[in-house]
Amino acid sequence: METIIKDGIRMPNDLAIDQAAQKLYWVDARLDKIEECDLDGKKRRILLQDHPQHPFQVAVHGKFLFWTDWVLNDVVRFDMITEELHHMEQNVAKPMSII
């Protein structure tokens, strides 16, 4: 077993792997942010901070990152190229999973 990220992380609720891009994505519900890094932990960067208010689950498909948010009661899509946010489904009480 190998630790990839150990600093600057408090409550990682979920993670997603993009095999094609060789990237790891995770949501941190305590720090209200979504981050990415290479699969070896290098090139770590914050994609979004403060907009996700309690991100719970995350999924990646191509250029899109999807997550559920327990405070916003929302399913959100983020375009990682244009950085546009789209609220796909609102007023969903405690959305749990996203596939």
UniProtKB/TrEMBL annotation:
<dbReference type="Pfam" id="PF00058">
    <property type="entry name" value="Ldl_recept_b"/>
</dbReference>
<dbReference type="InterPro" id="IPR011042">
    <property type="entry name" value="6-blade_b-propeller_TolB-like"/>
</dbReference>
<dbReference type="InterPro" id="IPR050778">
    <property type="entry name" value="Cueball_EGF_LRP_Nidogen"/>
</dbReference>
<protein>
    <submittedName>
        <fullName>Uncharacterized protein</fullName>
    </submittedName>
</protein>
<feature type="repeat" description="LDL-receptor class B">
    <location>
        <begin position="22"/>
        <end position="64"/>
    </location>
</feature>
<dbReference type="InterPro" id="IPR000033">
    <property type="entry name" value="LDLR_classB_rpt"/>
</dbReference>
<keyword id="KW-0245">EGF-like domain</keyword>
